[in-house]
Amino acid sequence: MGLDQNLASQLKSIEDKVASELKQCSDLDALQKIKAYFLGRKKGKLTQLIKLIPSLSINERKILGPKINQTKNKLLTLFQEKEKAFASSNVKSFFDPTLPGEKPIYGHLHPITQVCYEAEDIFEKMGFEIVEPFEIDDDFHVFETLNIPQGHPARDMWDTFWTEDNFIPITHTSAMQNRILKSVKPPIRAIVPGRCFRHEATDARHEHTFYQIEGVYVDQNISLADLLGTLLSFLEAFFQQKLKYKIQPSYFPFVEPGLEFLISCVICKGRGCATCGHSGWLELIPCGPIHPNVLKMGGVNPEKYSGFAWGMGLDRLVMLRFAIEDIRLFHSGNLRFLEQF
Ligand code: FA5
């Protein structure tokens, strides 16, 4: 067999092999491998034949060169067509409007965060500014500036955590009051949503880690009516219903008088249910007019200005909003619980 015939049969065999391999080839990866096997720059089967061309005589080159090139072009065309076929089948499935949509897997905000944002929105509309608390603070801000000096028995009202170097993972968001009073001249309207920590035995209503929203309002001629109006407006906007309210005496060294703000139960509308202990009332927000000593320590003249403060439990609001019976579910990591919100 002459060189001419020998080469022609090699070229034919390459073309046949490529055609049959491409028939079975079902993805782009496999296609690249076949292409490399026949046209790869160093060891491709056809490439090796192409490399022979310079060693041929001029006459052989004239006859065989075009044949080799023809085969090369044929193969390139076959590969291109296959590539196009893969590309168009992918595009089709990507844009196919008849396919059912795939639900993307997203997380969502924790119910406490959702309700916190909602409460912040309402207070912002009422003209309050949002202030972030320090999660670790000192004795001066957590107690001293709140009219609770060293040795004051009221310190025992809170089961406080202490670090080894005498700092405090904040017991309450009231720790920010002094900084707020010092930071701007009255009128002051600020809320402090933040995480608090207490060394408490946990139960369905108490956690070691929970959230409060502190409120501080200072201006001239502020009276108890402003406090009651502010809290009622917030709660009616939050629960989207008209509420009855009442106050009862309480004690906190940083307000005078100390009060507890109660609303008619939002679950039973005041008729009495398990949530309100069948009293028809929910004890919701400890509050009161800011003690003159606290104003003084914050650089605010109590002769000229007065104000009020409150510290409401955010977890409690979330529990009421979603009828959650056990506060410990919030940080349980229980997905069946969390996926409901
Ligand atoms: C205080 O922390 C005061 N700083 C509130 C205050 C601010 C009064 C300004 C007056 C003026 P108390 O310890 O009662 O108060 O906590 C306030 C609210 O936080 C409670 O009504 C409750 O809703 C929530 N709370 C307290 N301890 C826990 C706990 N262990 N788990 C969940 N929520 C809690």
From TrEMBL:
Cofactor field: Mg(2+)
GO molecular function list: ATP binding; magnesium ion binding; phenylalanine-tRNA ligase activity; tRNA binding
Compartments where found: Cytoplasm
Cofactor note: Binds 2 magnesium ions per tetramer.
Catalytic activity: tRNA(Phe) + L-phenylalanine + ATP = L-phenylalanyl-tRNA(Phe) + AMP + diphosphate + H(+)
Keyword Ligase: yes
GO cellular component, one term: cytoplasm
InterPro entries: aa-tRNA-synth_II (IPR006195), aa-tRNA-synth_II/BPL/LPL (IPR045864), Phe-tRNA_ligase_II_N (IPR004188), Phe_tRNA_ligase_alpha1_bac (IPR022911), Phenylalanyl-tRNA_Synthase (IPR002319), tRNA-bd_arm (IPR010978)
Source organism superkingdom: Bacteria
UniProt domain Aminoacyl-transfer RNA synthetases class-II family profile: residue ranges: 181-320
Subunit structure: Tetramer of two alpha and two beta subunits.
The protein, known as: Phenylalanine--tRNA ligase alpha subunit
Lineage: Bacteria, Katanobacteria
